[in-house]
Design brief:
Blueprint lengths: L33 E7 L5 E7 L13 E4 L17 H7 L17 H6 L13
Antiparallel strand pairs: 1-2, 2-3
Protein name: Phosphomethylpyrimidine synthase ThiC
InterPro entries: ThiC-associated_dom
Pfam families: ThiC-associated
Amino acid sequence: MSTPNEQLSPAQNQSGNVLPEGKPATATRSLASHALAFIDDGSGIRVPVTEISLEPSPNGDANPPFRTYRTAGPGSDPVRGLPPFRAAWIAGRGDTEAYSGRGRNLLDDGRSAVRRGAASAEWNGRARP
C-alpha cells in the first residue's frame, strides 16, 4: 500500500495495484524530497522536471536541488502521444505542406517481421491533419 508521500511507479494506480497492460498511468503523488517544477525559457514551451532536494554537504554548505527530466504525463503514453501544441505555429509559418503519407509496408518492421508474416502494433494515436 502506498503512503501519501510515496511516488507511484508507472505500472501502479492510486491504490498501489498494478494496472492492466495498455492502461495509461501517471504518478499524482511524490516523495516529500521531490517537487514538480517547469523550466520555461520564455518560448512558451514548459519542460517538466522533478526537483530533488539534496542533503547539505558534510561541511554544512547547502546544495541546490537536482533537476531531472520528468517522463510521466500525457507524452509517456505511446498509444496517445502528445497533443499537437505546435500545430498552429507550424501552419502559421507557411513553409510546410501536409500530405497523407505512404501506406505501411511489412518490410518497415524489419526482416524478422517479414519472416513471421506479422507487423508490429500499428500507431493508434492522433492522426495528423
